[in-house]
Amino acid sequence: MEARAGANQRIARISAHLQPPNFQEGSDVLLKSAECRAKGGAPGFKVAILGAAGGIGQPLSLLMKMNPLVSVLHLYDVVNTPGVTADVSHMDTGAVVRGFLGQQQLESALTGMDLVIIPAGVPRKPGMTRDDLFKINAGIVRTLCEGIAKSCPNAIVNLISNPVNSTVAIAAEVFKKAGTYDPKRLLGVTTLDVVRANTFVAEVLGVDPREVDVPVVGGHAGVTILPLLSQVKPRSSFTAEETEYLTNRIQNGGTEVVEAKAGTGSATLSMAYAAAKFAGACLRGLKGEAGVVECAFVDSQVRLGRAGAEEVYQLGPLNEYERIGLEKAKRELAGSIQKGVEFIRK
Ligand SMILES: NC(=O)c1ccc[n+]([C@@H]2O[C@H](COP(=O)([O-])OP(=O)(O)OC[C@H]3O[C@@H](n4cnc5c(N)ncnc54)[C@H](O)[C@@H]3O)[C@@H](O)[C@H]2O)c1
Ligand SMILES: O=C(O)C[C@H](O)C(=O)O
Predict the structure, then answer these.
(1) Class of domain 42-189 as given by CATH
(2) pTM of the model
(3) Core-most of 59, 93, 275, 330, by most CB within 10 Å?
(4) With a 6 A CB cut-off, is 258 part of the ligand 2 pocket?
(5) Which ligand lies nearest to the CA atom of residue 100 in the structure?
(6) ipTM greater than 0.95, yes or no?
């Protein structure tokens, strides 16, 4: 991912032509009973969550266990996965759950996966920016992506760990180094910005948030989060004050939660919901469902193709307010992407 390339449109159509589900068995499982059931398990996709014991990881594990398209769910973390795995595995849904603990089990956790979701890493505390997490999370993302390149190079990757504006570039560089990079398969998760935008816009319009669809493009930090209020569905108009209020609230939604949690972490529940929504869309695309469209932070070199995020949508007509916002977003994104690239290339 080049700095220039990462700063453009971010609405990806999830491909209907990805690899079919595979049913290859993993090894080194912690739960023997899950291993037995996996052999006769329902058809579906194999999904791994890396960072599964965390604030996002736990509710996300629960939500993915509820997804009927998932046949096998691997829960990996450096702590506490036996407990989380035992707990989630008691849910009477189809997916077989296996737990993996510590780096020596990373390879087993990843082998054969169709989709890997990464919420591993430290969250913000009040007064911090997402970029302040770079130092710790960059190394975590690098290690996990090296594992993916080795054990499941064809998996779709949903990257949640902050700062997303840099970690996606780190992942891209790791995959390039390993010779496995496919921009169609690497997706930075920005769905929480869309989820928030839908909620806040619905509040202003006085309608049900489920009826609202707000495209949010750019990256996932401050001014790089760019809601396109001129393209809200159903078609709506906003006063200048409403536009300013909504843009600021959407751009600062993460900080609003960090401050409310007062040092105990950042968004976890709404993030798990958003991640499950996005991962579900990826699985529906993998399955062959047509017209699955989501916003994501992707390398804009993506082109129409047969194996992944098959199309990057153009931004559509922007108003003056949005054009100014886009220029600000591009400037900041270019720096964040470059920082991620340099972390791997140095
Ligand atoms: N993209 C988004 O919209 C979004 C939204 C919310 C949070 N986040 C980010 O998600 C990340 C996780 O947030 P959280 O609240 O779940 O944090 P958390 O601290 O509750 O959980 C993180 C988990 O990652 C695990 N972990 C640490 N190093 C690991 C490694 N090398 N391999 C595997 N697992 C490892 C930890 O053990 C922990 O269980 C943070 O970076 C946060 O900023 C992103
Ligand atoms: O704000 C954070 O640090 C977490 C996340 O990126 C969010 O938007 O909630």
Answers:
(1) alpha beta
(2) 0.89
(3) 275
(4) yes
(5) 1
(6) yes
